[in-house]
Amino acid sequence: MRKDYNLEKRKYVIGGFFVIVALIYILRLFNLQLGDSKYKIYAENNAFLNKTVYPSRGLIYDRNGELMVFNQPAYDVMIIPRDVHEFDTIDFCRTLNITPQQLRKRFEDMKNTAGYSSFTPQRLITHLSAQDYGRLQEKLYRYPGLFIQKRILRQYSKGAAANVLGNLREVSPADIERDPYYQRGDYCGDLGVEKSYDEHLRGVKGVEILMRDANGRIQGRYQDGAQDVEPVSGRNLKLSLDLELQQYAESLMVNKIGAVVAIEPSTGEILALVSSPTYDPRMLVGRKRGEGYLALSRDPLKPLYDRAIMACYPPGSTFKPTQGLILLEEEIINLQTTYSCSHGFISGGLRVGCHAHGSPLPLKPALQTSCNAFFCWGLKGMIDKRSKYGTSADAFEVWKHHLVSMGYGYKLGVDLPGEKRGFLPNAEYYNKIYGEGHWSANTIISIAIGQGEILATPLQIANLSATIANRGWFITPHVVKEIQDTLIAEEYRQKHYPTIDATHYDAVAEGMRMAVTGGTCRMANLKDWEVCGKTGTAQNPHGKDHSAFMGFAPYHDPKIAVAVYVENAGFGATFGVPIGSLVIEKYLNRTIAPERKFLEQRMLESNTIIYSGVKKH
Description:
Elements: H1 5-35, H2 38-47, E1 48-53, E2 60-61, E3 67-79, H3 89-96, H4 100-111, E4 122-128, H5 130-139, E5 146-156, H6 162-165, E6 167-170, H7 173-178, E7 187-190, H8 192-196, H9 198-201, E8 206-212, E9 218-221, E10 237-239, H10 243-252, E11 258-264, E12 269-276, H11 289-298, H12 320-329, E13 344-347, E14 350-353, H13 363-369, H14 372-383, H15 386-389, H16 392-405, H17 427-434, H18 458-469, E15 474-475, E16 480-483, E17 495-496, H19 505-518, E18 532-538, E19 546-553, E20 560-566, H20 576-589, H21 597-605
Parallel strand pairs: 2-10
Antiparallel strand pairs: 1-8, 2-3, 3-4, 3-5, 6-7, 8-9, 10-16, 11-12, 11-20, 13-14, 15-17, 18-19, 19-20
Helix pairs in contact: 10-20, 12-14, 13-19
């Protein structure tokens, strides 16, 4: 009998079809059991609730061990939407002192938030008071799908140093993407050390595994907590701030716009970092954080703007010590070199004014009297010295290189977020403006006295003061002195040496001492301490001049270096010197001498905001 090959082929096709179907089922079964964890998660969610246990956030102390930031418990109402059944919303609202409309709004906001899922815990109400928590805890069994999540709320012992401490905020999607530690609804540091040291402060989260019954109700801890993971508390921080000094400096800056920075020269530790106007950090805690933040962000005086490390000001005459150091290093002058001052610098048709004093004079008396002409002639002698540098542009780059080594033109690297670099022009900058080879010292002469294009932060000015106090080195300024169970970063322990020979600093320090004993800083003279200082009156094209001061004490073995900058306050001797000297006296003596109380009272009561052109509404 003849074979039917078509039937033979059909047999193999049908057989192959069944084999393929069987393989598909086998692969799918394998995937469901071993590969796809989705159903396993659903099953576990039905049987267990993995409840995050938040660690205690690290405490923050000042350098003397005084507690500045601590924790108190807060409670959030969490909800797993898929587990919610009908409940008495009126009773729920009464329990928490909210209206039904507010509750509906919270449900709507929750559902419209990125990352919402009905299978995972969502935050419904934040920061319950202890009283609300107690009332809700008693009735929680009535509200299936809801549970209470314990959290940490920051509190502050004093309303000071807000710009240094920072605060906490809810994490954003970008935070979650950047750091897998965070989950939706977590909090992270925002501003200040809360942000820059967040990884040290936050600790490690724990997990509590709870069992559910068939109706989703919590029945207790799984295996009596044997599988729970305990949280690890965050590390405590000891700041370099002297809280008493910080509060005092803030009080002196009330009704003023500007900054005060005080540094311990030998360590680079920041003793006080004041930005004014400031705010009470307790404004940004708990349920009222959003309201407080909105008010601060809309304030025309910009209290959230940290002027100590962000504001870029013309340094004015506080810049002159850098010029003296560069001129000595480049051998443009020596300690006997004198320049004349005819009530200012006059070269061709150019004139930079100066106040009356003796003439001609060398470097130390020039610092003592803050002579503009001396430093203008010195800069001209360097920038126009083609026999040594070739071109003005090349000379300028040498000048700039020295300044960069002293901490100008770039971020110093303080351990706080948001630091600005100030501004130092380069030769290319001037080439673009004036044309290559078409500018000289006279074209840019204002930079010799800290005007023109030169901009610096108060932190950079204070760091220069610390460098002179140390006679030629500095440690990067920082606000954290110690981290529990670990070392602070190496960069805050190593010395930096500018390109200026250390032998030149004694002359500049002596000139600054002379400014206090018989020059522009006489008001800084203290009976028990040898103070060195330099005033600064920075021209302001938008209004009244800015008042600045930098100084250190004692002259030998210095303990504190200070920079003060008060916007629209006039001469440096009017506000910069008094505030700076009071901060120095307060730190060294812990009190103000009776004969200087009048000066303290005048600074406490004075108001320079009225000259700023900014009206507070």
